[in-house]
Amino acid sequence: MTFGNPWFLLGALGALIPVLVHLFDRRRPRAHPFGPMAFVLRSQKRTASRLKLKRLLLYTLRTLILLAIPLALARPEFSRDAQAATVTRGPAATAIILDASLSMRWSDGTSLFEKGRDEARDALKDLLPEEPATVMVCTGAPDAPPPPGFDRARLRALVDEAKPTYGSADLSRCLDMAARALEENPMAGKRLVVVSDMTISGFRLEAPPPTVKGPTGTLVKPEVVLRDVAEGRESLDNHALVDLRVEPALQAGPRSYQFTFTVRNFGAKPVKDLEAAVRVGESTLAKGFVDVPAGGTTQKTLTVRFPQGGTVVGAVTLAPDALAEDDRRPFVLPVPRGLKALVVNGSPHATRYRDEAFFVDAALTSPGSPVDVAVRDTEVGLREDFTAYDLVLLLNTPAPSEDEAAKLKTFVENGGGLFVSVGDHVNPDTYNQRLGALLPRPLRLVRTSAEREDPDAETKTAKLAQVKVDHPLFAPFTGRAEEGLIGARFYKYMLLEADSPSAPGTSQVLATYEDGAPAVAVARRGKGRVALFTSTVDRDWSDFAIRTSFLPLMQRFAAYLTGSLEEREEVRVRVGETVTLRPEGTQKVTAVRAPDGSEVPVKAQPDGSFVAGPTVEPGVHSVLGAEGKPVAALDFAATLDPAESDLSRVPQDTLTAYFGEDTVKASTGDADKPAVPLWTWLILAACLAFFFEGTLLRK
Description:
Layout: E1 2-3, H1 17-24, H2 37-73, E2 76-77, H3 81-89, E3 93-99, H4 112-126, E4 133-138, H5 152-161, H6 171-182, E5 190-196, E6 212-213, E7 219-220, E8 223-228, E9 239-248, E10 256-265, E11 271-280, E12 283-292, E13 297-305, E14 310-318, E15 328-335, E16 339-345, H7 358-364, E17 371-377, H8 378-381, E18 391-395, H9 402-413, E19 417-421, H10 428-435, E20 443-448, H11 457-460, E21 464-467, H12 483-486, E22 492-496, E23 507-513, E24 518-525, E25 528-533, H13 550-561, E26 573-574, E27 579-581, E28 591-593, E29 599-600, E30 602-604, E31 610-612, E32 619-624, E33 636-639, H14 652-659, E34 664-667, H15 678-698
Parallel strand pairs: 3-4, 3-5, 5-8, 8-34, 16-17, 16-18, 18-19, 19-25, 26-33
Antiparallel strand pairs: 1-2, 6-7, 9-10, 10-13, 11-12, 11-14, 14-15, 20-22, 21-23, 23-24, 24-25, 27-31, 28-29, 28-32, 30-31, 32-33
């Protein structure tokens, strides 16, 4: 037992007053024989025992009053962690480490972080006046704590202003940093007070425990006080969304996606009928229920069809539990908008599979495609109003007239897309004369690699040799998917000149044949794009139209030429990490805003990209371009680290063994303190004694 005001114990000597009064007040009466007194004596003997008990009770109550009051003023307590340590080890320079990781947001009505701040304040109160102290808020990237000092108001302000983060906290690193700060103080005693929920993600027990330099320069273990804000709980139940995958759902129609997310139960009890939903703003687009076994993992898939294209910002959510922050997974999804395409068929045929536009039409109108196709012959198609379309495809079409070529040029420069494939009806000279300003490269002549009737055609036909899979157009064709490209056989193809004289250096060759001749060339013209395919899109010059890669490639041509193809890789960034943004063309990134509206640091890179971060909170981050205008295509979502959702706790015995049994003092915060201080009960006892003493005197 310890006393807050030990000098008041001297007042307990007042309890001797009733005893002294009793001793000095004792009188021995003289004997005087008197006959009538015999009757009185017989009556007195009958009440003597009752009076003796009354006097004994009075002396006891008066002694209790005089003893309880000074003891109460001395403020006794059964246990005080920091002061108990002082008794055994003496005063010590103290560093209080407050865990500010995501797991500290766990709440059963009051968050663990709020309890942690109360514990940190109590640790400051427990310090003796001669003990210097410092406070460190432990995060994933902590700042070094200030040297120990005696400004308690400043330290309390640090605790009051501390906020929990959305990332992990490396308590082992924080302990080392705090130990280095304590070395700056000459006091021999050193103490580390750890205020944490003691989850396994916070400690690196494979690393050596913290040490400080002693007075002689030798390394010694500091005293470690563990304040467990979880109050000794065996576990903190929690379920979380640990992964999300969004993929097109072609079977459900255009602009349909399936959201496959993984739910993990970190608790010791199974979870039944857990609600999961896909939400955009306040709208719920899809909802389902999942069962997750104790300590297990479950996947759930929800399919959503979006009515229109554009960048969709939303989240997959679970019914919230005690740690609601990891029950939400944000996403930024580029949904292709509906496209209108005009297909100009330069070689119609009564037999469908021999028609020039047959395979292209089938590819662009397949399930899941957002393209609305209108097929016209050359005479009608080139007279159409191109402004009503997003994309024009010239398939083995004779060169348009000068007026029609001017219309096409205006259409592309205003943002339209143009796809050109060649064939027997394409005259290189006329095309160069009429469409030379649009084509990526001028046409030269037709080269025949093999005749179909040739018995050795299988070995003589040309094949694709180099494909730039790092370009968005060919990005999906890697691994096994590449076979559909390199396996195609080309009997004839159009050779191209080195570059277009009207726009030198603006074209790009994305695929070549084995002899190095271009197979696919693209270029920007004004606000629009043009793609040139140097063979046919039917089976006249090649068998590419019946290869598995033809359908997805034509759909990607349509998306790329109209600017609706997602040209960046999916941005995956976790809280605490940086992200690289790659704007298109000359576009700049001027600012990145976090979900709470604060700005995230942005730094331009020599290659034209921008590095933003580190991110500090989960959710969708907005990217602003020139003049502060939003660039929705560059928005990205920051997610939580699933490891921080595991709230398994390090056993007390393990921590004691790690830090050393001779240095650790455990504290469970308010759990080990009586609800009412002992001195309050002493005052109540004195009041009751005073009341009963007065009652006995009146009788």
